[in-house]
Structures are given as structure tokens and as C-alpha cells.
Amino acid sequence: MTKYEFRNDEPDIIHGRGYVYNLNYHIVWCTKYRNQALANPIIVDSLKGKILQICRENEYTVKALEIMPTHVHILLSAKPQESVTNIVKKLKGITAKWLFEKYPETMKEYFWGGHVWSPSYYAGSIGVTTESVVKKYIETQWNRPFH
Fold first, then answer.
1. Distance of alpha carbon 13 from alpha carbon 114, whole angstroms
2. Is the pTM of this model over 0.70?
3. Per-residue b/e over 125-144, b at no fewer than 16 CB within 10 Å?
4. Residue 124's beta-bridge partner residues?
5. Which CATH superfamily is domain 14-143 in?
6. What amino acid positions are annotated as catalytic residues?
7. Structure confidence by residue, pLDDT tens digits, 103-145
């Protein structure tokens, strides 16, 4: 099984043309009907590789990735121009089509309607500070010497 080594030496703050960002998302999506189609280590290994390829092609930085028998967890960073909805659509859409092409018999066994993924997903933003710290920072702006 291929293990992906996640790098911790990448900077948290990323500079783009006209913007600076640190946007990290924890995204989770499930198989349709919570079918355990992702229990096969060969499929899991291939799917990890495909997800990492999609992320590279779209300039998403993958910080963590794990595939469970019924769902996928990914922590990634993306440019501000990319909405979470578009990120999820790309990841789910491309991988669903690819899974049916690469493993047609297994996918047909679990997914008779042609859909691998449940239509829903979870997305949470991950930052370096807590919500209360940001609220306090904003609320105390007039108390600072530079306004």
C-alpha cells in the first residue's frame, strides 16, 4: 500500500498575486447508502492516488487524507478563488467517474444507480486561531494605536 508523506514544512501563509491567504478545509464525503465499497485496500490505494492527482492539478495542498470503508476525509488548502462547493464537486465528480471506469464490477455491485457518492458532504474551515480570538481581535480594533 502506498503511503503519502505529508509535509509539515510548507508555509501556512501563502502569497498569491494580489492576495495572501491561509485557507484550510476539512472535507468529508460518504459513499451512497454508506455502502462499504472502499474496504478494498487496492481500491483505497488507487483512490488516494487519484485524489492527490486531482489536488495537484488544481493547486490544492493536501495536508491529510484518509479513506475509510464508507467515507473520505481530506484536509486541504486552496486559493481564495476556489469555493468549497467547487472543490467538492471536482473531487467527487472526477473520482466517481474514474472509479466506475477503473473498477466497473465492484462499483456496479455496490452502486446500482450509477452514483458512488452521497449528494451531501461536510466542510469545516480550519485556522490558526479560534473563533473567540478573532471576535476579540475585531471587537478591540478601536483600542489599537493604528486605525
1. 40
2. yes
3. eeeeeeeeeeeeeeeeeeee
4. 26
5. Transposase IS200-like (3.30.70.1290)
6. 137
7. 999 999 999 888 999 999 999 998 777 768 777 877 887 787 7
